[in-house]
Structure formats: C-alpha cells, structure tokens
Write a structure and sequence with these properties.
Layout: E1 3-8, H1 16-23, E2 29-32, E3 41-45, E4 48-52, E5 65-68, E6 73-74, H2 76-86, H3 93-96, E7 97-100, E8 104-105, H4 108-121, H5 133-141, H6 156-173, H7 181-195, E9 199-201, H8 203-212, E10 217-220, H9 244-249, E11 258-266, E12 269-271, H10 284-292, E13 305-307, E14 309-310, H11 311-321, E15 325-329, E16 339-347, E17 353-354, E18 367-374, H12 391-404, E19 408-412, E20 420-422
Parallel strand pairs: 1-10, 1-11, 2-5, 2-10, 5-7, 6-8, 7-9, 11-15, 14-16, 15-19
Antiparallel strand pairs: 3-4, 12-13, 16-17, 16-18, 19-20
Helix pairs in contact: 2-7, 4-5, 4-6
Bound molecules: guanosine-5'-diphosphate, 6-O-phosphoryl inosine monophosphate and magnesium ion (MG).
Guanosine-5'-diphosphate binds next to helix 1 and strand 3.
Length: about 425
C-alpha cells in the first residue's frame, strides 16, 4: 500500500480542503505533514462552511483517523479553539485525531517575533500571516524548539522559560513591545493543559503500521508549491517544504511509498502576501475574479491578488512534485468571461522569451505572453457530469492537459462537496 499526496501547485488556497474532504471516504487516514495555523482549508457541505487551520480535512468523516504529523508547527491555542469549534458536530476527536510528539510547538513569543521581523523589513515584508510560522521553524532547524512530547516532561516549564528568555533578547533588540505576552501566556498554558489530554503519539509508527495493514493514506499539503522554502519565490515564501518530498520528512514515510500525487490548481491564479506574481491583474478583470471567486484569505481575511493561469509556473510545480493527476478548481469563477487568457511564456526585459522559472526570474520585471481561449460564458449550475460541460470548458481542459502532459481528472465547479465533477 502506498501513500497518496494532495498538494497545491500555486500560491496556496487552491481548494485543498474541499478536495481532501471529497476524497476522504476512499482513505482510512488523512495526515497533515507541514505548515501550521497559517493554513486555512475550507470545506462546505450540508449548507455549512468550515475553515480548518491545523486539523486535517478528514475530520468530518467519522471512520477516518486524522494525523498531525511531525513536520507541522502547531499552535496549542489555535488547536484548542478549533477543537472547541467542532464540539457541536459531535466529533470524537480523542479517537479520530492524533498528534505527533515530534511536531513543533508555536509559543507566544514566536508570534511576537514574526511581527517584529515583518516590521523590520518595511516594504520588503513577506506578508506573513503572523502566526509564528517562520520563527518556529527557525528554532526547529536551530535545534532549540519545543516539541509536542516535551509538554509531558517534568522540565517543560524550564525549557519553555529558557526559550522565551532567548526570544525576549531578540525582541528587545528589535524594540518590539511585549505587553501582550502575559495574556498570551495565560491562554497558552491553559491550552497546554488541554493539549495533554489529546492523543499524542509517535505518528511515524502509526503511518508505517498502516501500510502493513493495507490501509490507504492521504497526505494533505498546506500552502502551495510556489510558497515552498526551496523552490518558491524566495524570500516571499513560507518556511516549510510544501512539496511531495515534504510529505516524506513530515510524516516519516519512505519516498518509495509515495503513490499518486494529486496536484490541485485554480483555473486562474491568486496570491496573498507579497512577492512576484507575473500574471497579476490590476484592472477590472482582476477585480471581477476577486469578487466572483470570493478571493479573501481564509486565515487573515486579506483580499487575494488575482490573475490569469500561469503555465510556466504550473509546469514547474508539476515537475518538482512528480504530479500524476491534476484537479482543476473554481472553474465556475471564469463563467463571467467571454475570453480567457493563459500565460504560456514570459518575456524578459531583454526581449528573450522563456518558459522556465530560473533563479533570476523573481528579480526581473517579466511580461507574461498570453494565449487567448474562448470562454464558455454561461452558468455551470446543475451540471453533474463532464460530458455536460460547455464545449469551451472542455476545450480549456484539453488544452491544459496537452500543455501540462498530465490528465485533469477532477474539475470543481463550486465550493460545496457536491459541486465536484470527475472525468
Ligand atoms: P485551501 O487553503 O487550498 O484549502 O483553499 P481555501 O479554503 O483557502 O480557499 C479556497 C476557497 O474557494 C474556499 O472559500 C472554498 O470554499 C472555495 N472553493 C473551493 N472550490 C471551489 C470551486 O470550485 N468554486 C468556487 N466558486 N469556490 C470554491
Ligand atoms: P493554505 O494552506 C495562501 C503566505 C502568506 C505569506 C507567506 C508567508 O490555506 O493554502 P507565513 O505565515 O507562512 O509566514 O506566510 O505565505 N501563506 C499562504 N497563502 N494560503 C496559505 O495556506 C498560506 N500560508 C501562508 O500570505 O505570503
Ligand atoms: Mg487556504
């Protein structure tokens, strides 16, 4: 048995939560392997909308075990709030949710540091969600972080205090106020007490035992490939490995155990936060996409930047992840356009045309070169099979399949679980 991986191929918010929820009945385990509360994964069914930040999107299916893996950075305060919010859905989280003892804990000063670093960057700021992601991964790599298993040890408070003292030094260097800290710590320690009652485990054994028992596992990516720490538009990236390889280190799974890689992308592009975005639209078309797609961040509520689909970027993401199947999301958002543009190449300031994401590209003002396709320009409401799609939408799909050389096996036409068309 192998582990399938689902990940976003753009700058996040592709609709990962929705698709994991749709696919979940085919699996016994859904596992998060990186990121943390910077993620906001939306699920809609039975007329209710849920936004999950740290809990895997299989949580609403009672037969599924949801794992928060070692690669995740976890905020106990956010986790407690999320679990409290699920109370009305009668989810047996003690049975259906397990957390790796090797996951890293976000402590209150990580969030203050995030804000201090961002402020110090001025107009070069990353546009971080300010959830403490960068500083926590920094401590993990710097070998001074606290891990989930530490909360059970007698010297947890000592370890905590030593780390906070280090952070306070840095914060004072940045002249960053720490008035909010006392209240944040109060919430943090209350959440830690609650955390101790959860199912904390060595999840790498659970995952590998599951292979031996022929159980199917789906790894749920957060963020997107273009926010990856190595391959994204550095430094405007998140601090984790958002790609397929991250699922191996973030769960303790051998690369030879990776099965299907589902790459999910919007029929256009969005980005929140700063950084290069070659196809970004600053005109009415971009505004119309934002309105039609309700493109406002699930975690921060910030308006998302919008633009046409970027094929060089998509090809790059497919390449580094070894994508075997593509899922196209939010096709319905393009219903309003008579014509649809797709960026096939970039033109460099020198006039050279390229279709690769080189090291230098993020430093340059590249101009997208577009191919224009005919839009379907009609509602997709009520369509329940691929055959019933308007001809122009089918042409859009076949054009992309030809360019990307990977089949598009799912097209999403609305936020609800039911608005999902399999090809
Ligand atoms: P994630 O972070 O990748 O899980 O994506 P988000 O939940 O942050 O953002 C995706 C947004 O698009 C959410 O509001 C979803 O409810 C919504 N959504 C997902 N699929 C579709 C779709 O096919 N059409 C429309 N109109 N909205 C969708
Ligand atoms: P999901 O899983 C979209 C962006 C932030 C910022 C950069 C760094 O919902 O797709 P960080 O908080 O990680 O320090 O922010 O990454 N970012 C996301 N953008 N969706 C996300 O998650 C994101 N998580 C982080 O906006 O530009
Ligand atoms: Mg999101």
């Amino acid at each position: 048995m192998k582990m399938d991986v689902l990940l976003g191929l753009q700058w996040g918010d592709e609709g990962k939560g929705k698709v994991v929820d749709v696919l979940a009945p085919q699996y016994e385990i859904v596992a998060r392997f990186q990121g943390g509360p910077n993620a906001g994964h939306t699920l809609e069914f039975d007329g209710i909308k849920h936004v999950l930040h740290q809990i895997p999107s299989g949580i609403f299916r009672s037969q599924i075990l949801n794992i928060i893996g070692n690669g995740v950075v976890l905020d106990p305060i956010v986790l407690k709030k999320e679990i409290d919010g699920l109370a009305k859905f009668k989810i047996d989280y003690k049975k259906n949710l397990v957390i790796s003892k090797k996951a890293t804990i976000i402590i209150p000063t990580h969030k203050l540091l995030d804000a201090a670093y961002e402020q110090s960057k001025g107009d070069k700021k990353i546009g971080s969600t300010l959830k403490g992601i960068g500083p926590t991964y920094q401590d993990k790599i710097g070998r001074s972080a606290l891990r989930v298993g530490d909360i059970l040890s007698a010297d947890f408070n000592e370890k905590y205090t030593a780390l906070v003292e280090k952070h306070k030094n840095t914060l004072s260097h940045f002249n960053h106020p720490i008035d909010a800290l006392a209240e944040m710590e109060e919430q943090f320690f209350a959440a830690i007490e609650f955390f101790k009652t959860l199912n904390l485990i060595d999840s790498e054994y659970v995952v590998n035992d599951a292979f031996a028992e022929n159980k199917k596992i789906l790894a749920e990516g957060a963020q997107g490939s273009l926010l990856d720490i190595d391959f994204g538009s550095y430094p405007y990236v998140t601090s984790s490995s958002t790609m397929t390889a991250g699922a191996c280190t973030g769960l303790g799974v051998s690369p030879s155990k990776i099965g299907e890689v589902f790459g999910i992308f919007k029929a256009y592009c969005t980005r929140v936060g700063s950084g290069p975005f070659p196809t970004e639209l600053f005109d009415q078309t971009g505004e119309a996409m934002r309105k039609e797609g309700n493109e406002f961040g699930s975690t921060t509520g910030r308006p998302r930047r919008c633009g046409w689909l970027d094929l060089p970027a998509l090809k790059y993401s497919i390449m580094i992840n070894g994508v075997t199947q593509l899922f196209m999301m939010k096709a319905d958002v393009l219903n309003i356009f008579e014509e649809i543009q797709v960026c096939t190449h970039y033109e460099l300031p020198s006039g050279e045309k390229i279709d690769r994401l080189s090291f230098e590209i993020s430093e340059q003002d590249v101009k997208p070169i577009y191919k224009t396709l005919k839009g379907w320009n009609c509602s997709l409401e009520g369509i329940d099979s691929y055959e019933k799609f308007p001809a122009e939408l089918k042409e859009y799909v076949s054009y992309l399949e030809k360019e990307l050389n990977v089949p598009i096996n799912l097209v999403s036409v609305g936020p609800d679980r039911s608005q999902t068309i399999l090809k």
